[in-house]
Amino acid sequence: xxxxxxxxxxxxxxxxxxxxxxxxxxxxxxxxxxxxxxxxxxxxxxxxxxxxxxxxxxxxxxxxxxxxxxxxxxxxxxxxxxxxxxxxxxxxxxxxxxxxxxxxxxxxxxxxxxxxxxxxxxxxxxxxxxxxxxxxxxxxxxxxxxxxxxxxxxxxxxxxxxxxxxxxxxxxxxxxxxxxxxxxxxxxxxxxxxxxxxxxxxxxxxxxxxxxxxxxxxxxxxxxxxxxxxxxxxxxxxxxxxxxxxxxxxxxxxxxxxxxxxxxxxxxxxxxxxx
Length: 275
Fold this sequence. Notes:
It is a single chain. By secondary structure, the protein is an alpha/beta fold. Helix content is 39%, strand content 19%. It is built from nine helices and 13 strands. Residues 222-243 and 246-275 have low confidence and may be disordered.
């Protein structure tokens, strides 16, 4: 079974996907980490992450692969033989990943890798275009989102916990940049699949979101389903989340999201899988 989880940055995709993979015994693939690794590789070569021609020309010299820790199940990302899993989590790599992901040659190379890894396995993948482009026939599709303010605060707290000297406003600005980049790109943009269920994670813990999705995967229930949007009840018993994700077209670009829809701002088995 293929489970696709899409959405903008800091909506909780990776955390929820990891939890679900552990709950269900599935392999988890963080596709955004692959784009971050490509960004790191081109930056080390002195190439601008938005230089399409130079990045495409360098791809044959960039060896990205992933593995999973047998004890924890955590994904490990390699450039050649170097474990870069920690290095790719900086704000610079977030922006770089958004830049290189706009380049068709990069997306095609990494999508091919993602499909090879998932072949014949029960897999959960999170990203921006899993349900629309990478695996359009995935058995289950979800779109996680939250308000720009909620997502920026999550990112700010995450970076502060890691000792990064960054402000909330910087996080919000970077999310806005990534969201526009990801949703306005011409090739395989960030978009919610027509057959996906939307989960708005404002006010929810990752565990609550994972449990809601798991219930739907296992028995088609869990939470309240309205207009193909998964919502949760607030403490007063009312609906805590809105019924649609607010996907709107903008200037002819499919999949651009309004700020009030939650996107204002934004990325086994045995052996490693080479790019």
